């Protein structure tokens, strides 16, 4: 695979570029004279031109191409934008201030986005409402239809969503292994580190001391997943910390599971008040109870996406280590219909969506 090209004879600048590229997990080709860049110019996914060779490179008349940046270690040079235009670059990056942006440029060149993952958050309007079961069921349904899916367990007090899937013994990283990450993360590396079952990858909490999810770690995981996945399902706790707030801001839709009874409605009113400022599309999934689901939804002023079917013997199924029963079951059909209705491109025409289950 072609590598990004660095064009510079400034050894200090080159050392910086090699270090920044290593942070992005990228190796560089290096041209230390303008003429040496010509064999790499067209095929390199990204060209980084040092300020020291920008004029020399422009004099060779390189053909126009996208993804060219000029880098400099001198701040505020008024001549830098002229050099940028001369070599056909789209921006000037001043180091060290722009190091993070350059990491992103290198990372995008090495791992261009192959997907455009839709993020969906699921939260409980009241404790025990079944939000974790719904989150896992949505992720399983999508993955069984051929959509590359990441299931993110954002509840450090939930005991681990891997247990609900019957995969608590699966080898791979959990949140304590990931919580210290920030900046760009390769989705391929993330997927390799986490437990993966077919098209479903799982980032679960663990059963040791609870670990707070930092905003930076959640951002790194979701950014990587959006580049490499079709769907990201985040199982949220009922409190909103920094990491959870980061997930909400990136969600195409947030689903709140609400029992249709008085305490469920009262608790959900508080949850909706907490979640509403941080997310765009907010909708309810109701559980049957003593109240009319339509009345509960109207009282909360949130649209109802449907009534979750009750699954007989679900607790026993999960305790045996079996995942929720899906496929052609009422729960499976409900999850498929709910995914079809969500914003963000999860429609039946998407590649891999249609499968031999009658849909």
Please provide a brief summary of the model.
By secondary structure, the chain is α/β, with parallel strands linked by helices.
Structure description:
This protein starts with a strand and ends in an 18-residue tail after the last helix. It has 2 domains: 5-110, Rossmann fold, CATH 3.40.50.2300; 118-341, 3-Layer(aba) Sandwich (Rossmann fold). It has an 8-stranded mixed beta sheet, sandwiched between helices. Strands 2-1-3-4-5 form a 5-stranded parallel beta sheet, sandwiched between helices. Residues 347-359 have low confidence and may be disordered. It is α/β, with parallel strands linked by helices and 359 residues long. It contains 14 helices and 13 strands.
Topology:
Elements: E1 5-7, H1 11-23, E2 29-31, E3 47-50, H2 54-59, E4 68-72, H3 80-87, E5 91-94, H4 99-110, E6 118-124, H5 131-144, E7 149-153, H6 161-164, H7 175-178, H8 187-193, E8 196-197, E9 200-203, H9 215-228, E10 231-235, H10 242-249, E11 253-259, H11 262-275, E12 282-287, H12 293-300, E13 303-308, H13 314-319, H14 330-341
Helix pairs in contact: 5-14, 9-10
């Amino acid at each position: 695979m072609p590598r990004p090209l660095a064009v510079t004879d400034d050894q200090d600048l080159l050392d910086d570029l090699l270090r920044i590229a290593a942070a992005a997990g990228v190796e560089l080709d290096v041209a230390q004279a303008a003429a040496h860049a010509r064999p790499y110019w067209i095929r390199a996914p990204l060209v980084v031109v040092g300020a020291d060779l920008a004029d020399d490179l422009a004099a060779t008349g390189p053909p126009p191409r996208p993804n060219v940046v000029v880098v400099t270690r001198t701040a505020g040079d008024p001549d830098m934008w002229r050099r940028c235009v001369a070599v056909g670059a789209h921006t000037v990056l001043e180091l060290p201030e722009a190091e993070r942006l350059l990491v992103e440029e290198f990372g995008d060149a090495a791992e261009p986005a192959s997907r455009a993952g839709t993020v969906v958050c699921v939260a409980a309007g009241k404790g025990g409402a079944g939000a974790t079961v719904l989150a896992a069921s949505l992720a399983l349904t999508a993955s069984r239809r051929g959509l590359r899916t990441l299931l993110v367990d954002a509840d450090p007090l939930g005991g681990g969503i891997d247990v609900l899937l019957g995969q608590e013994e699966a080898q791979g990283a959990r949140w304590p292994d990931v919580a210290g990450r920030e900046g760009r993360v390769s989705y391929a590396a993330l997927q390799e580190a986490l437990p993966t079952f077919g098209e479903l990858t799982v980032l679960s909490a663990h059963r040791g001391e609870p670990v707070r999810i930092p905003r930076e770690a959640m951002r790194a995981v979701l950014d990587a997943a959006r580049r490499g996945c079709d769907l990201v399902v985040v199982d949220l706790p009922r409190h909103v910390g920094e990491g959870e707030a980061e997930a909400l801001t990136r969600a195409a839709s947030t689903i709140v599971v609400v029992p249709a009874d008085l305490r469920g409605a009262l608790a959900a009113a508080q949850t909706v008040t907490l979640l509403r400022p941080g997310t765009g599309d907010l909708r309810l999934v109701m559980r049957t109870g003593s109240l009319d689901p339509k009345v509960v939804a109207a009282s909360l002023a949130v649209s109802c996406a449907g009534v979750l079917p009750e699954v007989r013997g679900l607790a026993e199924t999960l305790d045996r280590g079996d995942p929720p029963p899906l496929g052609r079951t009422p729960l499976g059909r409900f999850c498929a219909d709910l995914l079809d209705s969500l914003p963000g491109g999860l429609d039946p025409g998407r590649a891999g969506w249609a499968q031999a289950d009658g849909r």
